[in-house]
Amino acid sequence: WSSDVCSSDLSVLRICRARTRIIFVLIYVAVVLALVSHIVISLLLSSAFERSSSLVPFVLGAYVLRGVAEQLRSQFLVIGATGTDCAVNAVSSSICVVCYFWLIPIFGVWGAIIATILSFAVMTLVAYWLLGEERHLTIDIGRVCKAAGIGSFVVGIFCWIRPANLLAESALAICSSTCFLVIMLLVACDRDDRWEIVSLIQMLRHRGP
Fold it and tell me: Does 138 score more than 60 pLDDT?
């Protein structure tokens, strides 16, 4: 989808906005999943699996990085730099394999998570660096970092004060996800983003029964 957007006649600003908004949605979904993961695991699985919920935020964070990297790498396809895209992928994959062999025997499942995060982080940084002057066509990295930072803070505070009672935890998860959405709209999104959200809500209301 990103390649289709970038190959169209949309303005540079609209291309960047489209990609940035995709990442915002990805970050919000990741935060919500991180907040409800312990609740879902507790309800659907035995108590032996409850500790695995502590891994979920880190796995989700890794795939947010992967999403950012994919948005950046899609620009290589637009400008015909498929060789560069393959090189970025090869470097990231090599780091992942090496770290798997090195870290998993030492740290177990945490080693796999660390290797995955390192791999996707390298993919993101290398792609951003190699894009050079094409960076302005990708994403607004400053606003993405703000949204990711706010999301990490919200999830961290939630995990720190998480109640033992599932009902209280569910209520806190709803409040936390709502607060994150509001803060992200106020801090990471700009006036045009907020205006388009309001326009979309109004359009949906007019289409209602």
Answer: yes
